[in-house]
Structure formats: C-alpha cells, structure tokens
Design goal:
The complex is a heterotrimer. In chain A, the strands form three sheets. In chain A, strands 1, 2, 3, 4, 5 and 6 form a six-stranded mixed sheet that branches. Chain A contains five helices and twelve strands. Chain A has one domain (about 5-260): GHMP Kinase, N-terminal domain (Ribosomal Protein S5, domain 2). Chain A is α+β, with helices and mostly antiparallel strands. The model of chain A has no long low-confidence stretch (mean pLDDT about 95). The radius of gyration of chain A is 19 Å and the shape is elongated. Chain A has helices at about 5-20, 100-115, 145-160, 205-210, 240-260, and strands at about 35-40, 45-50, 55-65, 75-85, 125, 130-140, 165-170, 170-180, 190-195, 200, 215-220, 225-230. In chain A, helix 2 packs across helix 3 (about 145-160). Chain B is built from four helices and twelve strands, in the order ββββββαβαββαβββα. In chain B, helix 1 (about 95-105) packs across helix 2 (about 135-150). The longest helix of chain B is centred in the last third of the chain and has 30 residues, at about 205-235. The radius of gyration of chain B is 18 Å and the shape is globular. Chain C has three domains: about 5-50, RNA polymerase II/Efflux pump adaptor protein, barrel-sandwich hybrid domain (OB fold (Dihydrolipoamide Acetyltransferase, E2P)); about 60-135, Nucleic acid-binding proteins (OB fold (Dihydrolipoamide Acetyltransferase, E2P)), CATH 2.40.50; about 140-220, K Homology domain, type 1 (Ribosomal Protein S8, Chain: A, domain 1, 2-Layer Sandwich). In chain C, about 20% of the residues lie in helices and about 35% in strands. In chain C, the strands form four sheets. Chain C has a five-stranded mixed β-barrel with strand order 8-9-10-12-11. In chain C, strands 1-6-7-3 form a four-stranded mixed sheet, with no helix packed on it. Chain C has a three-stranded antiparallel sheet with strand order 2-5-4, with no helix packed on it. In chain C, helix 3 runs antiparallel to helix 4. The mean pLDDT of chain C is about 90. The chains are: A alpha+beta, B alpha+beta, C alpha+beta. The interface of A and B includes residues 44, 47 and 97 of A.
C-alpha cells in the first residue's frame, strides 16, 4: 500500500524492537489509545467511530428486508463491506475495491459470522420469504495502521448500537426506529500483530506497518476461543511464534471486549 | 402532491423543526481532524456530517489530467453507504459526479492553482450522515480543509441553500422540507467580493421569490463563513 | 516581537507596497492568501505561512529517499508533488572519477541529504550531491516535521540546531522539506526527536530557545 521505504527507517524500527522497545514508546502488547463513539448519524440503524491512535474507522449498519437464501430459509443475511476511502491515505485511490480492502472486509466478516455474533435465525421473519439483511459498512477515514482491529471493533460497536427500524406491511418505515436491538450473541474482537525483524508487536502503527515482514490477525470470541485468523505479508512466522502470538492475542481480546458496551 | 406531504410547513412563523424562516440549522466546524491528510475539516450541520480531506499540491494521477499552467483542483464527493435511508451502494454515481464537478468549480475561483503547475489538489468529501443540504455541507468542509492544508486562497467559500416550502421562502431546508418543498436553491459565495461560485436550482420560483431566496441563501452563506473562520482561528489563532 | 496572525482573504493594507509570498492585491488592497504571521514593513508586505506542504526552491537542502533508478539517474521522493532526480553528473565529481555502474554507490532504499540545484520550467526538480554538506545518509533515523516549522528548528543563523547538536552529541541534518535525519546513540536520538517535536509544537511561543535548553538540562 505504501511506496518504497528508506532502509534507514526500516533499520531504525527493527533495531529499537530488537532492544525490546517501540518507536512510539509502547510495550509489545500495548494498544494505542482507543476511543469508541456510537450513534454518530441518525440515518444509519447503528453506527460507531473508532479511533485507534491516529487510525479512524467509522462503521454503519443498514437493515433491509429481503428474502432468505434458499439453502438457509430460516436465517437472516449478513453482508460485510469495507471502503478504504482515498481521503484516508495518500496511497489510497478512488475506484473499485482492491485486494487489501476486500481482505479486511472478509476477515472481519469471518470473525462476526464464525463466532455467531449475530443470531441469524432470529433475523428470519417469514420462513423462506422475509428476513432482515444486515449490512455492515466500514468506512476508513484515516489510515495510520491496523485497520483489522479498528474495523472489527467499529463493526461490533455499531452492531451493538443498532436499533431495528419500524416495519409495517413488510416494509420499513424510514426515520422511525424501535427500541429492539439486533440479536447479538457474541462479541468477537480482532487482535493484530506485526512481525518486524526479531520481534512480534501488537497493533502496528503506520511506521511499523510499512516495514513489517508479516502480520497475524486473530479473532477471539467472548469465551476466549478463536473464530478467525489471517496471516498476511510477504514474510513468515515460525510455529512457536504463531502459538505465542495466539496466546497473547487471547489475553488482549478481553481488554477490547470490555470496551464494547451492550 | 407527494404522499406524506405535511399540511402546513410553517405554523405561527415557526417551521416544522421550530426554526424561523430565515434561521439556519446549528452548525459546528472543526479544522484538522485527520492525521494523514495535508488538511482536513469536519462539519456537522443540522443532521449532516461531512469530513473533508485535502491532499496537495501532489503528483497528478493519471498523468494526462495534469495541466502545464496550473494545478488541477479535484473535489470528490462521496456518500457513505449508511448515510442515507436506503443503503447507498458503494461507488460513484451520476449524482455524486455532478456534485463533485460543481463543487470543484465552486472552489476553483479562490484557489491559487497557477502557483502549482502540473500538480493536483485533491479534496475528498465523505458524507457520513445526510439530512438535506449535503452539497453545501461538503463545499463548506472542503474549503476549510484546503485552508488547513496551507494552500493559498483568496477567501474561504461557504455554501447554503434557500428554498420554497408551502409557498414560503425559507433558508437551509431540512429533510422534510427538502423532500416535499417546491424549490431548492443551493449557493456558494466568495464573501469578500460577494461573487457567486455555485448556483443550482430545481423546482418553481416566481422572479420575485427567486430574488428573496437568493438574498436568504447569501445571508446564510455569510453566517456559515463566520463559523468557518472560527474553526481556523480555534486551530491556528493561538499561534500569534 | 509577536506577529499578527492572518487568515486567507483577510485585508492587510492598502497601497503600492512590494509584495512577498502569502499575499495578493486587488484594487490596491492587499490581502493574505494563507494562514500565517504577518510581516508588514513600510514598503513591503508578506505572510509567513504556518502550515502547508513543502514547495521546492533552488539551493534548499532536502532529505530525499531513492525510490527508483535507471542506468544514469536516481529518482528520489522528497515529499513534494514533483519527484527529484539526481543525475550521475550531479553525483560524481571530476576528482573522484565516474562510476559506470551507479548502483554501486547508491541504491533504491538509500536516503540522501542533497541540494536542489535546479527546477526546470516544467517543474522537474534536480538535486545535486556535489555541494558541500550533501551526503548519503547512513544509519540513524528520519523524522517528519511541518515544513513551515523548519526555520524554527534551525533557529537564527543556525543557533537552535547548533545548540541541539552540541548538547546531545548527535548528528542532525534538517531538510527544508520537513525531514530531519538524526544519528547517535539510541537514547540521544530519542531526546533529539523529543526536542524537535517540542519546537514544532511551541514554534511560535516566546522564549523558545530558553525552554529547549531547560528541556535538555533536565534530561541529563
């Protein structure tokens, strides 16, 4: 996503990590400051703006009525989408989504889906005929590293913030919300680690992400089980690094889950 | 008449949301809200929320768009999928393209583009929540973002609409007035000279109604301008 | 002396004064075109911008990062709209002789401190590595500052930067494009980065040099 990075920058970040420190003074398992603001705009059925350091991702939920898939006539439908808006980074371009955008959307989607975060059976209104379709849209406003964790956190916060719109005769009455929430059954979060030289650090910032060798994202549900993973980047992890990272991720997941209010 | 049209738009001098005919909705502007952009602004106006990110002057991609004598000023207006009642499918559409074009032209007269030949000045306007008047909110945000990026300009450009609802001329239409009103006139001005840099209209005005709406939109712009300047003063004023 | 802050479109003065950057005239009236500090003299007016991207000027020293190269030139990113070229003849001096394979001296990913030799009418930027002070950068780190704050980091006649170098023992090269290269022991580099961040933040406050001196003393 970024241009050529000067070796000086790469070496400096790797050297400091080798000494057990990080460029911005954080510990290896520290997040940057995180804030979650919900109920941003009234047109979305649910919304949240997550700031993770200088990264900003807004997620909005739109609910539509539609037909269940024929192979799952008793379930509602979940669709997850991300947009890396060109205003978020000098390297993002307008136009159709590119592989990094699709990857973020799909990894967040897997975390939500596989953890059973939404009880989709409760989204069915009439078997085989009418159900809720939940659109999760992540809108990246400022890219300063680690879009996976910020994206997942904003999506979950927005889902928890969602109130179902009013329905009459099988049609949504826009502008009138009910007090009914989505059937949220789990609270998955993602924790992303970057391998830079000899060290593996949580929540890479922009400088770290630009020079990282490889990346590992672990989605953990509220019971501490894993529900999705994604390795990225051109480099590799050793098996030991993987097991250690997954364990560290599960610990941090608890902290993130505390930030998600019901 | 459209289904759902209110019987009356103005009762005892008050509009449906309680405003007087010549009163704009509350507006809040913050400059410098994004880290990566060279300049940025967030505008909350009525229920509208817009974030603008300005980059430039920078290299032009695609290269054939470069102009040898000046910078190209490109404003890209985009609505987030969740910003409207019916989810908007991501990607550009005819409406966004038109708004992007007229917004670029609204700002072009004030930006010193000739100082930066063969470059681009790009502004990305994201509408995060739409409540009638997003183009005016977007222009207002874009202009503060360009100033925040330190790009030389002759003035800021505020925008505001006026329109006709239930036969009355009012400023800064809200959602319901926009949906069921009879006319809408969004405008952008260059406050220092009083010149008009954006003007669109749809609906029906008599010539005298148009004159009244024009003056109301212009006064609205002048009020928005004060809030734009305050946003810059809040961020930079302490540096004296 | 505290200078007045002005904003785009703000009226400054009426008359036929000579104009520097950051101002424009309409009907004899002079206005500011940027946000910045007003410099108004009897017969001259300009506004010193306090924000904005770097715009290349001849004879400026900048920190560039080599992004691409071919058989005869290196292409560097100097953080501006125009990529900057270093041709082989702007690198090799006659005394040192010419190297056929230019990748033996500098490669993609290297960083340099170089002077802007020329800006062509079509706005191509050419850097020279033959000027005194220019060099390939080895080790250390690069930090970014707002280009408009660079003069404060350098200080009057280089007073600020000399003090920083002297007190910390680090090598520091300040590019007019807002990139600063620092080299020294890790904790000293961190100290310099902290100082520069502080200068950037407090650039327009009174007694800046004194405050920075105190900051360094405290770290000792």
């Amino acid at each position: 996503m970024e241009h050529v990075v000067a070796e000086i920058r790469r070496d400096h970040i790797a050297n400091i990590i080798r000494d057990g420190k990080r460029v911005d003074g954080r510990g290896f398992d520290d997040y940057r400051p995180i804030t979650i603001e919900t109920d941003i705009g009234h047109k979305a059925d649910g919304s949240a703006l997550v700031k993770m350091g200088d990264t900003q991702v807004m997620a909005g939920i739109k609910l539509l009525l539609g037909q269940p898939f024929s192979d799952m006539p008793n379930s509602g439908v979940l669709t997850t989408n991300a947009e890396l808006r060109p205003g978020a980074s000098p390297t993002f371009e307008a136009g159709p989504p590119k592989p990094p955008t699709v990857e973020i959307a799909r990894v967040v989607d897997r975390g939500i889906r596989e953890s059973g975060a939404i009880d989709v059976d409760k989204l069915c209104i009439t078997e085989g005929e009418l159900c809720w379709i939940v659109f999760v849209d992540m809108h990246v406003l400022d890219y300063s590293g680690n879009l996976f964790d910020a994206g997942m956190l904003s999506s979950m916060a927005a889902l928890l913030d969602t109130r179902l719109p009013k329905v009459e005769d099988g049609k949504i009455i826009y502008g009138e919300k009910t007090n009914n929430k989505l059937p949220i059954a789990n609270k998955p979060v993602e924790t992303t680690f970057a391998k830079i030289g000899s060290g593996v650090v949580l929540d890479p910032n922009l400088d770290e992400e630009r020079v990282m060798d490889a990346r590992l994202t672990v989605a953990t549900d509220k019971s501490g089980d894993m529900c999705a993973m994604q390795k990225g980047g051109e480099g590799t992890f050793t098996p030991d690094e993987i097991f250690e990272t997954v364990e560290r991720g599960a610990k941090k997941a608890k902290e993130l889950q505390k930030l998600l209010k019901d | 008449m459209k289904v759902g049209t209110p019987e009356k738009f103005i009762v005892k001098g008050k509009r449906l949301d309680g405003r007087a005919p010549d009163e704009i909705r509350p507006i809040k502007i913050e400059a410098g809200v994004l880290k990566r952009a060279d300049g940025s602004a967030r505008v909350e106006w009525g229920g509208n929320i817009a974030v603008a990110a300005c980059y430039g002057p920078r290299e032009v991609h695609p290269r054939h768009m470069a102009k040898p004598d000046k910078a190209v000023l490109r404003i890209n207006y985009n609505m987030a999928p969740f910003s409207v009642s019916d989810r908007k499918r991501p990607g550009t559409d005819r409406r966004s393209m038109e708004i992007s074009k007229v917004t670029s032209e609204a700002l072009e007269p004030v930006v010193f583009t000739h100082l930066y030949p063969n470059t681009a000045i790009d502004v990305f306007v994201e509408i995060l929540n739409a409540a009638a008047g997003t183009r005016c909110t977007g222009i207002t945000a874009a202009s503060v973002a360009i100033a925040d990026a330190g790009i030389p300009m002759k003035d800021l450009v505020p925008a505001c609409a006026a329109g006709k609802v239930g036969g009355e001329i009012v400023v800064d239409l809200c959602d319901i007035e926009d949906n069921f009103g009879e006319a809408d006139l969004p405008m952008a001005i260059i406050p220092r000279t009083g010149d008009i840099s954006l003007l669109q209209m749809d609906g029906n005005f008599t010539p005298s109604e148009f004159k009244k709406a024009f003056e109301m939109a212009k006064t609205g712009c002048e009020q928005v301008y004060k809030v734009q300047m305050d946003a810059l003063r809040n961020k930079y004023g302490k540096m004296e | 002396m505290a200078r007045k802050m002005v904003f785009p479109g703000e009226f400054i003065v009426e008359g036929d004064l000579k104009m520097g950057d950051g101002v424009f005239r309409e009907n004899k009236r002079v206005y500011s075109s940027v946000m910045g500090l007003l410099d108004l003299k009897e017969n001259f007016v300009k506004v010193i911008p306090i924000t904005g991207r770097y715009f290349p000027k001849a004879n400026d020293f900048v920190v560039g990062e080599i992004e691409d190269m071919d058989f005869g030139s290196w292409y560097t990113n100097i953080g501006t709209a125009y990529s900057a070229t270093i041709t082989a003849k702007d690198y090799f001096s006659e005394r040192d002789g010419f190297q056929e394979d230019i990748s033996k001296v500098m490669r993609i990913g290297d960083a340099v401190y170089a002077m802007i030799r020329e800006i062509s009418p079509r706005k191509r930027v050419f850097l020279s590595m033959r000027e005194r002070g220019s060099r390939k950068l080895r080790g250390g780190r690069i930090i970014e500052v707002t280009p408009a704050k660079v003069p404060r980091i350098i200080g009057r006649q280089g007073s600020m930067i000399s003090m920083i170098k002297h007190e910390t023992g680090c090598q520091v090269l300040v590019g007019q494009n807002g990139r600063v290269w620092i080299e020294g022991p890790q904790e000293k580099m961190d100290l310099v980065a902290g100082i520069i961040e502080r200068i950037e933040k407090d650039a327009h406050t009174q007694g800046l040099t004194e405050n920075i001196k105190n900051m360094i003393m405290k770290e000792r």
